[in-house]
């Protein structure tokens, strides 16, 4: 019987925003700190689900924070650029797994960032299942988006290990019957993946 792995993207395979990116966004926005970033994360679901554009998201964010943006498009461009960095060691690891196992990605990504990763990381299209929130109109930790990703893998929840850097998303996966772990680095992940896959996880030719 086959087993598979489902990975979150950012904070696992792709790198989160760097301090330099955060500074560039704040410069473009004209304000920063908790006043910006608390609202940024608290109001992101509609954008990640593709229900509003990136430009509208930033205008909404600024209004909630009590600011106006000098150039919304410049802020959006700075943010999208900040999501461009891959962890090449993790990319190599996931691609290696995908050569013999069922592997997928499940990520909360808005349309502008989806376009970025599809352009810069074309290998993602070779995976068995790629599910982006901005394409399906749902965001983690909604159980429905996990079910979509599982459908793409063609495996029951108990046979798919889920890997994410956010505990709330890991708990949602466990709620569906998936074994799931919080990602804290490749060194700790390897033995967990090896134990999950075992001989039964090897794809037959």
From TrEMBL:
Alphabetized GO MF terms: hydrolase activity
Domain of life: Bacteria
Alphabetically ordered keywords of this record: Hydrolase
InterPro entries: HAD-like_sf (IPR036412), HAD-SF_hydro_IA (IPR006439), HAD_sf (IPR023214)
Keyword rRNA processing: no
CDD domains to which the protein is assigned, alphabetical: HAD_sEH-N_like
Pfam families referenced in this protein's UniProt entry, alphabetically: Hydrolase
Protein name: Hydrolase of the HAD superfamily
Lineage: Bacteria, Bacillati, Actinomycetota, Actinomycetes, Propionibacteriales
């Amino acid at each position: 019987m086959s087993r598979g792995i489902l990975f979150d993207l950012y904070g696992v395979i792709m790198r989160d925003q760097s301090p330099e990116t955060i500074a560039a966004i704040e410069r473009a926005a004209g304000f920063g700190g908790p006043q910006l970033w608390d609202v940024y994360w608290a109001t992101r679901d509609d954008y990640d689900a593709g229900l509003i554009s990136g430009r509208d998201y930033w205008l909404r964010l600024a209004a909630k924070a009590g600011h106006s943006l000098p150039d919304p498009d410049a802020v959006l461009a700075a943010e999208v650029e900040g999501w461009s960095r891959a962890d090449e060691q993790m990319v190599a690891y996931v691609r290696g797994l995908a050569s013999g196992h069922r592997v997928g990605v499940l990520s909360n990504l808005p349309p502008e960032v989806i376009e970025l990763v599809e352009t810069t990381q074309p290998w993602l299209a070779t995976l068995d299942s790629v599910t982006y929130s901005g394409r399906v109109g749902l965001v983690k930790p909604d159980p429905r988006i996990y079910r979509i990703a599982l459908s793409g893998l063609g495996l029951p929840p108990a046979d798919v290990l889920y890997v994410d850097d956010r505990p709330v998303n890991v708990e949602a996966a466990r709620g569906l019957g998936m074994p799931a772990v919080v990602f804290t680095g490749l060194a700790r992940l390897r033995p967990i993946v090896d134990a999950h896959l075992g001989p039964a996880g090897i794809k037959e030719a």
